[in-house]
Amino acid sequence: MIWRVEIKNKDGVFDSHGESTKRSIVDLGLETITQVETVLVYNLETDSSKEVVSKIVQDLLSDPITQKYSITNEGKPILVMPLKGRHLVEIAYHPGVMDPVERSTLKGIKDIGVKNVSSVRTAIQYILSGKLTKSNLSTITDRILLNKLIQHKVSFPVKDSDILPKVAEHQFNRIIVDLLKASDRMLVKLSKDGQLFLSLDEMKVIQKYFRKLKRNPIDCELETIAQTWSEHCFHKTFRGTIQYTYVEGGKKKTSTIKNLLKTTIVKATEELNKPWCVSVFHDNAGVIKFDKESNICFKVETHNHPSALEPFGGANTGIGGVLRDILGTGLGAKPICNTDVFCFAPPDMKLKDLPKGTLHPKRVMKGVVSGVRDYGNKMGIPTVNGSLQFDEKFVGNPLVYCGSIGIMPKDKVKKKVGRGDLVVVVGGKTGRDGIHGATFSSGELTDESEVVSSGAVQIGDPIAEKKVMDAQLLARDKGLYTAVTDCGAGGLSSAVGEMGEILGVRVNLEKVPLKYHGLSYTEIWISESQERMVFSVKPSQIKKFLDVFESENVEATVIGEFIPSKKLELFFDGNKVCSLDMDFLYDGNPRVAKKALFKAPKKINPRVPKKEDLTSKLKEVLSHYNVCSKEWVVRQYDHEVQGGSIVKPFVGVKNDGPSDAAVITPKLGSSKGIAVSNGINIRYGMIDPYWMA
């Protein structure tokens, strides 16, 4: 049975979410809206009585001082009825999309002594007051209240099967892809239809490999290659060859750049050869010396495409991903602070000026800021520094940089998978969320991306990652594992594959913990469900390792073994579904060849008219989005948690002036600290990107 619980603020209690939603609606130009009220909805699957459900609501879900509630099993709203001319819109997650509240709510219910609640799904009601047409309601729903990638508008009455649809058991079906005889046109079609985002050259190399093996590939093998060769995982544009044409001294010149990454950033780092660089361009994050006992690691990563489609989830999983990179560096570092750089289109752009398929910049901005705030604050990691820039050129694809800094014992930098080590996956369960996220990074955003690549977007669960972090650091200090990496882009495909690259690995996919039944072997392997890490553990240490994670209420499961086969081998219930040579997987892809032409823009020196009084111009500059105060954003982040913030984001007598950098001390009581800053000038980049960098 599904019990429906509705919780609403009592009359006279300020509804902050409702007021924020109202302002967003007014920003769309719908000024006839007079009030927005919100109602939290919990759907509890349980055979408990109404009295037991009432105990759950009173003890856990509601605040008796400020909120009221109702309980029903009829599947329709009752708390705000009758509407009396108001409009009700209820928004819920699609079946299969991770509900961030579900896991922590289930844990809380068990903690108060109720054991027979099997699932929780949430929704939110918006009660809209004002003169609104059907067209107005449709615009508000689509533009403000929901993101159709992950959510839907609820229709009443709600059936139990709508909330928790039954998923058929997966029937094993090994899919063989007809590749050996495929024409070039067919190869391109296979890549596009499968969202592999592989070029024709790459598909032809794959075809040649399997012709040598004298067999067609299994679908899982193609997916694995696509993940491994994706832009996100392999950075193939940076590693490729670029024929660069430019004009110098009035003459056109051409030069060839072989591996942009190695000839610029890597080359400069190697030439400088600083003694304090411990690990560079090798692990999940760079590592430098801090003091005699510890090292510092730093990682920054973009999450632009996902944030363009689902701003909250994209930024949420962006910061979650770099935190796991810190945890996956060496044998694991403890995250001590976060930073970020965001670039959006102006938040006051007119709807008519937006390209088809794009979200409004203000919605993108608020969603991204909320996503980073939600994850960092709940993880207990301070966000101490950042930057916020605006320009219309970011309307189709925002720039979302998320970064994190960690500290680790100096003897925990190196890791090595050993022969016979067990493959252990810990943290969140695996579902269909995030499939093709890695390959999605290799494609261009179009007005169809929100439909075609909807599965590439995920929602994070920072509470689950906090528990993983706590358990991992305990296991690290006990020396219970030999290597670790995060399960990010590409999912298990990327994490397990990279760890087994030198030695070889065998995985039994049916052992992977699932969120729900019905996933195929390929979906299990490439899913990018969040909050997962992969460890290599010696058999002699496995019991102690599992006990540590169980003590922190974190699921840990042995799914395979590292073996000296030089192959990636996957099985599902004893059926082989993948067998690839590691050499081909990690060194067999053709290098990307691109052409670049730089035309220096005409530089026109601005003419500044002479005026005796520049007060009005000064006010214009100060009110520009790139200059005005960003306090509204900065104050949403907790920059004091962990107690190590020395120089805060705001300084001065009244703590209201933005600081050029933040300073934190990783070790409380120590006089040694770290300065964190950033620099970006998008206007300079429009003149010459090279000199901006």
Automatic annotation (TrEMBL):
The keyword Metal-binding applies. Transmembrane segments: none annotated. Residues 188-236 form the Phosphoribosylformylglycinamidine synthase linker domain. The keyword ATP-binding applies. Keywords: ATP-binding, Cytoplasm, Ligase, Magnesium, Metal-binding, Nucleotide-binding, Purine biosynthesis. Residues 419-571 form the PurM-like C-terminal domain. This is Phosphoribosylformylglycinamidine synthase, PurS subunit / Phosphoribosylformylglycinamidine synthase, synthetase subunit. Its EC number is 6.3.5.3. GO terms for molecular function: ATP binding; metal ion binding; phosphoribosylformylglycinamidine synthase activity. Residues 283-408 form the PurM-like N-terminal domain. One of its GO terms (biological process) is 'de novo' IMP biosynthetic process. Pfam families: AIRS (PF00586), AIRS_C (PF02769), FGAR-AT_linker (PF18072), PurS (PF02700). InterPro entries: PRibForGlyAmidine_synth_PurL, PurL_linker, PurM-like_C_dom, PurM-like_C_sf, PurM-like_N, PurM-like_N_sf, PurS, PurS-like_sf.
